[in-house]
Each structure stands twice: as C-alpha cells, then as structure tokens.
Amino acid sequence: MFYWVVKAILAPILHVVFRPWAEGVENVPKHGPAILAGNHLSFADHFFGPLQLRRKVISLGKSDYFTGRGLKGFFTRMFFSGVGTVPIDRSGGKASEAALRTGKRILREGNVLGIYPEGTRSPDGRLYKGKTGVARMALESRVPVIPWAMVNTYEMMPPGRALPKLGIRPGVRFGKPLDFSRYYGMEEDRLVLRAVTDEIMYALMELSGQEYVDKYAASARVEMERAARAARPQS
C-alpha cells in the first residue's frame, strides 16, 4: 500500500517537472511473474524506471539502506520501502544465495522483480559487464526477462549529484521479452549463465545506445578513483 501512496504523490509532480517518456510499455506482462533487467545509470532510476508501469516493481537493495540511524536513516528506509525495495545482504558467498532465494520467492508470488545486472551504478554512463545472478534467477524461476533501459538519467543526475538537473527528459525503453527456455535445467553451467547474462546486456546496449565495457562497474570505479588520486598534485 505504501508503494502506491508514494507513487500517487510523486507521479504527477515528476510528470509535470521532468516530462518523462517511455517506449515498449506493452512488453511488460500485465499479469504473472517477470524479471525487469535494467542498466543502472543514476539514483533517479528508482523513480523514473517504474513510473510508467501500472504494476508494482519490487527490487533488491543492500540492507545498509534499512539500517541507518537518526532522521536520515528514517527517511532512507521510508524512501526505499516506498519505491518497492526489499533489503538483502550483498556481501557475497552465502549472502548471495540468500538474495537469490529472496528474488525467487518474489517471482513465485507472481510479482515483477527489477534487477540491475551491473550490480551498481555506472561510474561514467557506459554499460558494464553483467553479473550472472540474473541468469540463475531467470532459469531457476523459468520466467521471461524484459530488458529495461534507462535513458538520460546519467546526464540528469550522475553519481554524486544531490538534485536532478532540469531541462533533461529522462526516458525508459522496455524491450521484448527474452526467452531462455532452451537453457532450462542448465542453471549450474557457468558458460550458460554467462551466455544468458551477455545476451541480456547486449539487449540493454541496443536499447540504451550505451557504449559497452567488458569489465565490472565496481572494478572500473576503483580504477577511476585510483587514477584520480594519482593525478592529484603532491603537496
């Protein structure tokens, strides 16, 4: 209920101020489970991605969003609850298996699950290598995967910017559902998981028009931060 209250309040404001656009909304099924696999350009994706859909989109977010203290912690919890985020531990290992189980439960309940295969926001607006968790979830749950490409949100609100820029229209393109039924029963095969993930990322590249980089976004961010520190003048 809280999700729909937040959406009812924010949607008219966002439409008037930013005039967001969408293409391919008809590709998202009106009923039944599905995975929306998207690129992740900006914090603004949480607002503008699900905005044009009449179905609730549930996403998986790091548990840190729900454990903060004080006034900031309270509003952070309220925000992520309001945009349909379910907390998970993303520390890896057994935590990854727990996240997978949570995602499969959401799909078993007939919901739409939003996933960002890159695992984090792009540090520079390019599209990075996807992690294979989305492939495992799709094959084990046997649900369609709809590519979900955000457009212009990086330019509007890049990482580190507190407020979005005006005058930039954010958009979202929903691609046709990807059918991976030919791989059902092969979810333990690492080559299959990589092939499925790469097919999803290729579809996102086609929809978004982004340049693709064959490395993980988190690694690229570390490299950029290291290069920035090295470029600073020594005192």
TrEMBL record:
Question: What keywords would UniProt list here?
Answer: Acyltransferase, Transferase
Q: Which domain of life is it from?
A: Bacteria
Which terms in the Gene Ontology molecular function aspect does this entry carry? 1-acylglycerol-3-phosphate O-acyltransferase activity
SUPFAM superfamilies assigned: Glycerol-3-phosphate (1)-acyltransferase
Enumerate the CDD domains for this protein.
LPLAT_AGPAT-like
Q: What residue ranges carry the coiled-coil annotation?
A: none
Q: Tell me its EC number(s), please.
A: 2.3.1.51
UniProt record, GO biological process: phosphatidic acid biosynthetic process
Task: Tell me where in this chain the Phospholipid/glycerol acyltransferase domain is found.
Answer: 34-153
Q: What class of enzyme is it?
A: transferase
InterPro entries xref list = Plipid/glycerol_acylTrfase (IPR002123)
Q: Name one GO cellular component term.
A: plasma membrane
Recorded protein name is: 1-acyl-sn-glycerol-3-phosphate acyltransferase
Organism per entry: Nonomuraea endophytica
Phylogenetic placement of the source organism: Bacteria, Bacillati, Actinomycetota, Actinomycetes, Streptosporangiales
